[in-house]
Design brief:
Length: 660
């Protein structure tokens, strides 16, 4: 009790106020109406709340007894998150149910954590602590992001059948692993770890799904700023944290100069990518791994628990963001190989440098994480298929000539590349893996393209991550340690480093505000809380969907009254449907399969009911607005469907015919 009181006394007024504000906001968010209810039983919820603190205790035990304890404040949140996601995912796979998975996974880790009570090792080195200004930098940076999150964060969620809304809600329906929303017999070939996290937060805090997504997006961005500041301090010394954290989180190229007559096909800036939600989880996990490697390389030693931490975070990164995961693994392998060769060359020259045995241990941990990721998810299979089938060499040099290609790359990477390399030269640490990541990603983008999408631009984000670490850290070092004239000179590159992201966020915030003020959908990206009232979804239809989602099983498809209601059922309730999505071809589904589904939906043939049951159709929701009432009446007369639930004028039917 005495220790607790001492800890409370050490809390600043800012921390206490932030905690109280967070509790108030969370309570307010939990009161938002949830039109599409699917909540766990009270017993499961009680188990989650009881054992969640144990996961933090387990993480504390691992870090305190590892070689990472000096950087515990930065590593523990990412490691705890990775442990929770991985345990839920593995138990969900084993038990084939999301709720059993999250309950078993949380309880298992919680029990392990509680069993370690009193066993944490004492740190002989003084652990790193965040300065007050870094906390304020994270708060200010998050407030800058927040308007776009609240007003306009519907990227690839409201307009896509198999998107983050639908995947999250399918998981919340209890189906695990999630299925493709159109081809429900196929396990989802996607890096859906972030959607699993969205579902976990939605269930534990009983939030509406869009609120859960916004909450995770905001909190992880706050954590990302802290990580950038932490890494910057480790590489460039004291005082750089607040500036490095802010600049790192908003780093981008110069796509805004396309309006001046340069190239127009610029990749999304970093803030834009943040709303492509695999990056929402992938960036902080990637930075957590970078901080771990920075620590181990500085200490030149590892131990089993530090390697376990690397393996766990690498595994979840593989489930979260395929492009970053692939380049990260290659960069670690290349780093160890190059460093070992340098040591051998020096040894042959008459010196006897210490061999980088700690890097060999890191390689084993990363390979183990990649192997586990391959075993427990389809991510590695997705990478293999993408490389073998859809990732092809460009037919010609980007933009037609080498000079144009170089200009385009300078437009993308000029500021982060220039100051990033300057930072690597100054820090002389972690530059080998950073260069491999940056130039490897730039090479992939310039040399290859996807057949089915523009997602090759995601490799520009991979390059920005290591470059942003060193560019932000170096600029922050100059702004905090150099003479006055040099500080003034570096204000311009500091502003240029973040201008594209700031411009995007300003545009998004103003468009979202305009949409709210004028009650219009500006740019088709307004937030769900603005869009949902405009959809005028009948209450009877909502009740019917709630009934179906409580009874639907994995692989089962629902027929809906109209195309609009089909979108509603898939995106807002996570129910698989026959309607194909625009991105299905990029996930490996052929044009013939997609066309057949489209025809089955547009021209329902009552004498071919087995075609539908064979495709997995089990449920039909009929309402007065239905386009298929005549076909439904015919199926009723044939005895192949039966009514199972009714909500006034909206009726739910079930196919009674067996699949062939």
């Amino acid at each position: 009790m005495k220790d607790i009181l001492v800890g409370v006394k050490r809390l600043s007024v800012v921390h206490v106020c932030l905690f109280i504000l967070g509790v108030i906001v969370l309570c307010a968010l939990s009161l938002l109406p949830d039109e599409f209810v699917s909540n766990p039983s009270p017993k499961i919820l009680a188990a989650l709340l009881a054992f969640l603190p144990g996961i933090w205790r387990l993480t504390q035990f691992i870090v305190s007894r590892s070689s990472l304890r000096k950087d515990a404040i930065g590593i523990m949140p990412g490691l705890a998150l990775a442990l929770w996601i991985l345990s839920t995912h593995i138990f969900g796979l084993l038990l084939q149910d999301f709720y059993l998975g999250i309950a078993a996974g949380t309880s298992f880790l919680g029990l392990l954590g509680y069993s370690t009570a009193g066993k944490s090792g004492a740190s002989r080195a003084r652990p790193f602590a965040y300065p007050t200004m870094l906390w304020w930098s994270a708060i200010v940076g998050t407030l800058i992001l927040l308007p776009a999150v609240v007003l306009k964060d519907n990227w690839d969620k409201l307009g896509t059948i198999t998107g983050h809304f639908s995947i999250t809600e399918q998981i919340v329906n209890g189906i695990y692993p999630p299925r493709h929303l159109t081809f429900a017999n196929v396990l989802l070939p996607y890096h859906y770890a972030v959607d699993t996290l969205f579902a976990m937060v939605r269930v534990v805090f009983r939030l509406r799904f869009d609120v859960a997504i916004d909450l995770v997006t905001t909190v992880l961005f706050f954590y990302t700023i802290l990580l950038y500041g932490h890494i910057g301090t480790r590489l460039f010394g004291k005082k750089v944290g607040p500036i490095a954290g802010f600049l790192g989180a908003f780093t981008s190229g110069l796509p805004f100069i396309s309006s001046l007559g340069f190239f127009n096909d610029m990749p999304p800036d970093v803030a834009n990518n943040w709303f492509q939600h695999p990056w929402t989880l992938g960036i902080p996990l990637g930075l957590t791994l970078f901080l771990m490697l920075t620590n181990l390389d500085a200490e030149k030693k590892t131990n089993p628990l530090s390697l376990l931490a690397i393996m766990v975070v690498t595994t979840v990164l593989g489930m979260a963001q395929t492009a970053l995961y692939g380049i990260f693994v290659i960069s670690v392998l290349g780093w160890a190989a190059i460093t070992w060769l340098i040591a051998m060359a020096r040894d042959a020259g008459g010196t006897s440098p210490e061999r980088p045995r700690h890097l060999i241990d890191v390689v084993y941990a990363v390979i183990a994480g990649a192997f586990v990721s391959f075993i427990v998810s389809d991510t590695t299979a997705l990478i293999v298929r993408a490389v073998s089938e859809s990732l092809v060499p460009r037919g010609s040099v980007l933009h037609g000539s080498w000079s144009q290609m170089i200009l385009w790359n300078l437009q993308c990477f000029s500021i982060p590349l220039l100051f990033g390399i300057m930072g690597m030269v100054w820090a002389r640490r972690m530059y080998i893996p950073s260069l491999i990541m940056a130039f490897g990603a730039i090479f992939v983008f310039n040399r290859y393209e996807y057949l089915y999408s523009w997602d090759i631009v995601k490799f520009t984000q991979v390059a920005w991550i290591p470059l942003s670490i060193f560019a932000a850290g170096f600029i922050a070092h100059v702004l905090t340690h150099s003479r006055y004239s040099l500080r003034i000179a570096f204000i311009l590159p500091a502003v240029s480093l973040v201008m594209a992201s700031m411009g995007f966020l300003w545009q998004s915030g103003t468009e979202g505000f305009q949409a709210w003020k004028e009650d219009t959908n500006v740019g088709n990206h307004t937030a769900l809380w603005m869009e949902l009232p405009r959809k005028n979804i009948p209450r009877n239809f909502i009740h019917a969907l709630a009934w179906v989602r409580q009874n639907v099983q994995a692989g089962e498809i629902t027929l809906l009254p109209s195309e609009e209601r089909t979108f509603d059922a898939a995106i807002l309730a996570g129910l698989p449907v026959l309607l194909p999505g625009w991105g299905d071809h990029s996930l490996g589904f052929g044009a013939e399969e997609i066309d057949r589904r489209t025809q089955m939906l547009e021209n329902i043939m009552t004498d071919l009911h087995r075609e539908y049951t064979n495709e997995g159709v089990r449920w039909i929701v009929s309402s007065p607005e239905s386009d298929t009432n005549s076909q439904i009446n015919e199926w009723i007369s044939q005895g192949v469907i039966a009514q199972v639930a009714a909500f006034d004028d909206t009726i739910v039917y079930e196919f009674t015919a067996e699949r062939e």
